[in-house]
Specification:
The complex is a heterodimer of chains A (about 500) and B (about 425). Chain A is an alpha+beta fold and about 500 residues long. Chain A is built from 13 helices and 23 strands. In chain A, strands 1, 2, 9, 10, 11, 12, 19 and 20 form an 8-stranded mixed β-sheet that branches. In chain A, a hairpin with a 5-residue loop joins strand 15 and strand 16. The longest helix of chain A has 20 residues. Chain A is globular and about 65 Å long. Chain B is α/β, with parallel strands linked by helices and about 425 residues long. Chain B folds into 3 domains: about 190 residues, 3-Layer(bba) Sandwich (FAD/NAD(P)-binding domain), CATH 3.50.50; about 130 residues, FAD/NAD(P)-binding domain, CATH 3.50.50.60; about 90 residues, Sandwich (Immunoglobulin-like), CATH 2.60.40. In chain B, the strands form 7 sheets. In chain B, strands 1, 2, 5, 6, 7, 8 and 20 form a 7-stranded mixed β-sheet that branches. In chain B, strands 10-18-12-13-14 form a 5-stranded parallel β-sheet. Chain B is globular, with a radius of gyration of 22 Å. Classes of the chains: A alpha+beta (about 500), B alpha/beta (about 425). Chains A and B meet through helix 7, strand 18, helix 9, helix 12 and strand 23 of A and helix 2, strand 7, helix 3, helix 4 and strand 11 of B. Strand 23 of chain A pairs antiparallel with strand 11 of chain B, so a sheet runs across the interface.
Chain lengths: ~500, ~425
């Protein structure tokens, strides 16, 4: 379906982006400043439904990637422009800094190597510090940590907020979006591509950006390009309620033969999480959590923060990183179809690199012949949905006087009002998860136990659709099986009327 | 811009606890401001349309909404003294008893009461708190959320359900879903006993042929978009899964009735001492917390089995809140009440410096004990009360009344197997 009211809706788009994750949306946002017609094609019902909704939410400093790699270059560039992007887009971003902890001499040597990589990659302001200095920066760090690599430029953000904000901003600047549109085949025979989707829809475009995440290799093959493959690597997480044991900085463990180690980190919303695990698998659809994963996370998280209150677990989730066969980001024009530009294999540090990848994609498009002329009136600013809980009392009084729905708290745990939820729906949320990602309703400790029925009602009312058509996350994820028998319905509404 | 409201007693929550506290506080001379986040008073009872309420309090059997309506009507009769503010969410409570709240009509509010009664109730434990692995499809609900969907909204959450946990709401919902034409395949209980009332096991499961599997839990959720199945597994006496006992059960819904947690975010915010065993505030026999002039009652204090007991407890809190508001103080907590043996917790956890009359001690045991002996004694050795009971289970709250005149020091509530 065509969701957004794009200003430009020609027969043939100048450029179509396949994939509404953070990479596709960042690219769309950057390209929306140019005088081209632009489309976003997304297989699911919303943006940010793949890896962009389930990752660490960290803007890495950039010492991890191998010097000379695209990952290293784009990470450091991405980190440098993150503040500007998040500022313009109204997305939370805090440079809280990261510590990589060493628990022994082998770890310490690994820190030294990371530090050297960081210098080579151009990461600013790093230092190797003692365990005590690390504990001075973050008192919750384990007494067993003997050294640390301190990188003050690392930060935390909300990956889905960033993705949604990029999309909203691109849309305001003319992007057309096709949701529930999974590209299944491409006709490359003409002077433009015809992207055919299941269900019979098709989108025509002269240039295509392949930002299809896990499925980028399959999309490439539709263009007869089989130059790379993508493997899913599962990462499980445990999210914790706000607590005195929540660290204020991102805490990594030194990479070892046993893997990169899990991290304990605050989230942009003040929670803490432990994660991710790293498990290579073949199934691109299996984002389930496991008992083994949870056990591993608990054990390793306590190694960094012995006082971490794991009983405050709110939920567990997992994401699938899109790991490319080259070991690096694959950002280039296709050798087979030069007007197909890949942004593939975007595993970590993909979230950090997203703004820089967008810049690079624009450069490649221009090099491949797409004229990118700045569009008059492009607006880089996207206003976030104001959070009631974060407002001053005066501001709360003002917004409620203007619209009483802002004084009606729906989600108790996160103090989310009807006004915020209605605004989320107005901006494009169509499902429970769509509302949750935009305004946090249902994201707190009761996990929607109280507010889910009310959010279903609001989605139904605002969208003018029946209650039992509301989904958790689109497709067949229906929340309700249907109305109860008519006689009993009568009883229910009678009770409502009487009470 | 924001009005400051002054009142004798502010009560947070107009469920069964808040309503009863409001009535009693008003009858003891207080002006009462009753804050309710929902659009109607009654709390969770509004969706409890089954009967079984009021047998103790009214001596007759009522439905939840009927039980709540009796109290709401009584509160309404005292309209001069009790002001009910609906759609009003309390946002904070500070150490000087100041409450901030918000509603669509008045906007942000600041309330300065002489005394506060906490009556926020409880919430349900979730899948995330249990850590059940698997996919995250639609169709996993807490039993209470499902109850609201069916009873207030008129929608079925699913058609083939597995219920994990034999708490009362889960048992009630097994019957309710069956009445609505859904198939309830089974109730799984991790323990070897139910935390629900015996009458509910009989009337909600046995009468409908719904199997109750003890020592069984759900180890995995399956399904990409909607629940398609769950894996159930037997557990040993250490609650560890027994390898090889896994069984796949096809269903579209998983309901969780795995425990209730008092909602004490505001309590914590005010720095009030909490009891880790109850999840509620530490209180004395008047239900006064560690913060003078702040009282707690109902499920925010301890998860009750019966609304009738909630009402009684709330009356105590309401009476003394009114007295505190008038007098400006009450005797401070002085003596401790300690849980020993199989006693998991006791409420109240403290006895004030000047106790009066009979004091009801409510307690739960940590494991099924049969037969059991309860001994209430002074820490210096004198036995105040001793009695035997055929069986005590964690699912049934026990009560022991003691004469405050017999108290001479800290009190021990000991449950032992005999």
């Amino acid at each position: 379906m065509l969701e957004a009211d794009g200003l430009n809706r020609p027969d043939v788009f100048d450029c179509a982006v396949i994939g509404g994750g953070v990479i596709g949306c960042a690219a769309a946002r950057l390209l929306s400043r140019y005088d081209i017609s632009l489309a976003l094609i997304e297989a699911s019902e919303d943006v940010s439904t793949g890896a962009s909704r389930a990752n660490s939410g960290i803007a890495h400093a950039g010492y991890d990637a191998a010097p000379g790699s695209a990952m290293a270059r784009l990470n450091v560039r991405g980190s440098a422009i993150y503040g500007q992007w998040c500022g313009e887009l109204g997305v939370p971003f805090e440079r809280c800094g990261s510590l990589v902890l060493a628990f022994g001499e082998t770890d310490s040597r690994a820190l030294a190597e990371l530090y050297e990589s960081g210098l080579a990659n151009g990461v600013p302001d790093m230092s190797l510090i003692s365990g005590d200095e690390a504990r001075a920066l973050e008192p919750r760090v384990s007494p067993d940590a003997i050294r640390a690599l301190w990188a003050p430029t690392a930060g935390i953000t909300s990956p889905y907020q960033l993705t949604i904000a990029c999309w909203e901003n691109a849309r305001a600047n003319g992007l057309a979006t096709f949701f529930d549109t999974r590209v299944t085949g491409v006709d490359c025979s003409g002077d433009h591509f015809i992207l055919n989707a299941d269900g019979g829809a098709s989108v025509r475009a002269r240039y295509v950006i392949n930002a299809a995440g896990l499925f980028a290799d399959e999309v490439a093959r539709m263009f007869a390009d089989s130059s790379f493959s993508i493997k899913p690597r599962k990462g499980e997480y445990i999210l914790l309620d706000r607590d005195d044991s929540t660290p204020r900085r991102v805490l990594f463990q030194a990479p070892s033969a046993m893997g990169k180690g899990v991290l304990v980190s605050p989230t942009a919303d003040g929670n803490a999480f432990a994660g991710p695990t790293a498990l290579d698998q073949t199934d691109k659809a299996d984002a389930s959590t496991t008992r083994e994963g949870a056990d591993e996370l608990r054990r390793l998280a306590l190694r960094s923060v012995p006082g971490l209150n794991l009983r405050a677990a709110i939920t567990a989730f997992s994401g699938l990183r899109a790991v490319g066969s080259t070991g690096d980001f694959i950002i280039r024009a296709s050798d087979i179809q030069p007007r197909l530009i890949h942004a593939a294999g975007i595993a970590s540090p993909g979230l950090t690199s997203a703004p820089a990848i967008a810049e690079e994609l624009a450069d490649i498009l221009a090099a491949q012949g797409l004229a990118l002329k700045e569009k008059p009136g492009w607006n880089p600013v996207r206003a976030p949905i104001e959070r009631f809980a974060a407002m001053t009392t005066e501001r709360q009084a003002e917004v409620i006087a203007d619209d009483p729905r802002w004084g009606h708290v729906i989600c108790r745990c996160e103090t989310v009002t009807e006004g915020e939820i209605v605004e989320a729906i107005r901006r494009g949320a169509r499902s429970m998860d769509g509302v949750k990602r935009r305004v946090r309703a249902g994201m707190g400790r009761c996990q929607g136990g109280f507010c889910a029925p009310r959010v279903i009602e609001l989605l139904s009312r605002e969208r003018g659709v029946p209650m039992d058509s509301i989904t958790k996350s689109g497709g067949g994820s229906l929340m309700l099986a249907g109305p109860i028998r008519e006689s009993a319905r009568g009883f229910a509404s009678e009770e409502e009327a009487r009470a | 811009m924001t009005g400051v409201r002054v009142t004798d007693v502010a009560i947070i929550g107009a469920g069964p606890a808040g309503l009863a506290a409001a009535i009693t506080a008003a009858d003891n001379g207080a002006n009462v401001l009753l804050l309710e986040r929902d659009s109607h008073p009654g709390g969770i009872l509004r969706q409890c349309i089954h009967n079984g309420f009021g047998l103790h309090y009214f001596g007759e059997e009522l439905t939840g909404p009927e039980y709540a309506a009796r109290f709401a009507d009584e509160a309404a009769k005292r309209a001069g003294r009790v002001t009910l503010m609906t759609d009003t969410m309390a946002l904070s409570l500070s150490g000087d008893r100041t409450i901030t709240a918000v509603n669509p009509h008045d906007g942000p509010l600041t309330i300065k009461p002489g005394a506060v009664v906490l009556a926020m109730g409880c919430r349900e434990r979730t899948r995330g708190a249990l850590g059940i692995p698997g996919t995250r499809p639609a169709g996993v609900y807490t039993a209470g959320a499902a109850q609201r969907l069916v009873n207030l909204d008129g929608y079925l959450p699913g058609r083939r359900a597995v219920i994990l946990g034999s708490g009362d709401i889960g048992l009630i919902m097994a019957r309710r879903l069956t009445w609505e034409g859904a198939k309830v395949l089974m109730v799984c209980e991790l323990m070897n006993y139910s935390s629900g009332l015996n009458r509910n096991i009989s009337q909600c499961l046995r009468d409908y042929g719904i199997p109750l599997h003890f020592n069984t839990t759900v180890s995995r959720v399956h399904g990409a978009e909607r629940v398609e199945a769950v894996t159930i597994v037997s557990v040993d006496d250490k609650r560890q899964a027994i390898p090889g006992s896994e069984r796949l059960v096809e269903c579209d819904t998983l309901l969780l009735s795995v425990g209730l947690l008092p909602e004490n975010e505001l309590t914590r915010m005010a720095g009030i001492e909490l009891d880790p065993a109850t999840g509620g505030a530490v209180v004395d026999e008047r239900r006064q917390t560690s913060l003078p002039g702040v009282f707690a009652c109902g499920n925010v204090l301890q998860v009750h089995d019966l609304a009738d007991h909630v009402s009684r407890e709330a009356e105590t809190a309401g009476r003394y809140a009114a007295r505190f508001a008038a007098a400006g103080s009450l005797p401070a907590p002085a003596l401790r009440v300690r849980a020993e043996g199989f006693t998991r917790y006791v409420v109240p956890q403290r006895i004030s410096a000047k106790p009066e009359g009979l004091i009801d001690l409510y307690y739960r045991v940590s494991d099924a004990v049969k037969p059991a002996r309860l001994v209430v004694k002074s820490s210096d050795g004198g036995t105040i009360l001793s009695r035997r009971k055929q069986a005590m289970t964690p699912g049934e709250m026990e009560r022991a009344s003691i004469d405050s005149a017999k108290l001479s020091g800290d009190t021990v509530v000991l449950t032992e197997a005999i």
